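Before surveying the methods themselves, we first show a specimen of the format, giving the amino acid sequence and C-alpha cells:

:::
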Amino acid sequence: MHDGRGRAVPGELMRVFWSVMLAALGCLRIPAQTDQSPVERRIATAQKKIQADSKSWQAYNELAAALCRKARDDSKSATYDEAQKALDRSFWFSPGNYEGQKAQVMVLLGEHRAVDALKLATELNSKVHDDIGVWGLLVDCNAALGNYAEAEYDAQWILDLRAGSSLGFEKAAGLRFHFGDPEGAIEFYEEASRRTSANDADQRAWLLTQIASIQLASGNSKQAEDRLAEALKLFPDSQLALGLREKARTAEARR
C-alpha cells in the first residue's frame, strides 16, 4: 500500500487502516454465538470472513445481503445504510461486480428508490437472463411501482426457469394476495416454505409471517397467532413477527 505521494505505508499502519475501516462497518463487534438470531449469525459469518481477508469483495457482498435480511425484519433505514457501506467496500475492491449489484438493488428497494432499483435490475437481467434471483428482484421492483402485470410476467419467468424453486412460489404468493386470492397466496407461501432449506431459519420465519399477515387480514387472528408462534421459534427476536403477534392478540381479544 502507498500514500498519496507514492511512498510505501509500513505494514503496521496498513493494519491500523484496515482495523479502522472494519470497525466502521461493525465487523469487530461480533456477539456471542449463543445470543445470535439467524440473521445475526449471517452477519457474523460475513464479518469473520472480512476479518480473515479484508479485501474479499465477496464477503462484503455477503455482509450486505445479510444486512438486507435484517432490514427486511426491522425496517430500519440505518440497517440499509450499513448494507450500503458494505457494498461500497465491495465495489472498491471489485468495481461493478455482479453479485454486489444484485445486493444494490435490494438496498435501493429498501430506500424506496424503486425506479432506480428497476433500472439496475433490468440491466442485470439483460446480462444474465436466466438468473432467477434477478427475476425475483424485478418482481419486487415492479410491484413496488404498481406495475403488477409486469411483476406477474417476471414471476412466471422464475417458474418457467426453475419450476420447483421456493423463490417462484414466494413471488407468486405475494401477487396472488394482491389479486384478491388470499387462499391461493397462503397455499403458495406454504409451498415456498416446504421448499426452503431447514437451515434457512430467518427465511422460513419470514414466510410464516407472511402467511400470518394474510390470515390476520382475513379475520383469522387465532390462526395468525399460531403461525407467528412457529415463526418465533425459528427467529425468536423477529421484530416483524413480534409486532404482528401483538396485532393478532389484540384482534383475538376483541372477538
Notes: The domain at 11-112 is CATH 1.25.40 (Serine Threonine Protein Phosphatase 5, Tetratricopeptide repeat). Residues 1-33 have pLDDT under 50 and may be disordered. The longest helix spans residues 57-74.
